[in-house]
Amino acid sequence: MSENDADAALQTLVGLLKQRGETVATAESLTGGMVGAALTDVPGVSAVYRGGVVVYATDLKATLAGVPADLLAAAGPVHPDTAAALARGVRERLGATYGLATTGVAGPDPQGGIQAGTVFVAAAGPASVRVQQLSLTGDRTAVRRATVDAVLRLAAELVAEEPG
């Protein structure tokens, strides 16, 4: 996704949420707060952004974001079901209409047998949850930036398709 596409997705997301009076919250692992930072770069976003949690450590995914401990034990932190649970959990815990989540391996080395560049992003709303798997290339910075772009695009698509 080009920088212009990412910016367009971000503007679409924030615009739709404002128009509908809805909100969003974030649960981030490998992005370490970059999604929240991208959102808070938008003037007036305080009307829609509830906040976020950075859950880099696996145990915090359970305690702060509400991912079931048995899911983490069975599937691990980098898994589509974990991403979905992060998005649902942050939505519920922060009282937002939508929850966004990122989890994966930014690299440069594999983690727990999972290759660098393996990422899952998720968006959860009142009607559905969407998860997207990414196989990204490049250094840590490139993987993390592409992850932010992907979760914002996924969120914009979900919000546009769900009834307001």
From TrEMBL:
Residues 11-157 form the CinA C-terminal domain. Transmembrane segments: none annotated. Gene3D superfamilies: CinA-like. InterPro entries: CinA-like_C (IPR036653), CinA_C (IPR008136). Pfam families: CinA. This is Nicotinamide-nucleotide amidase. It comes from Kribbella caucasensis.
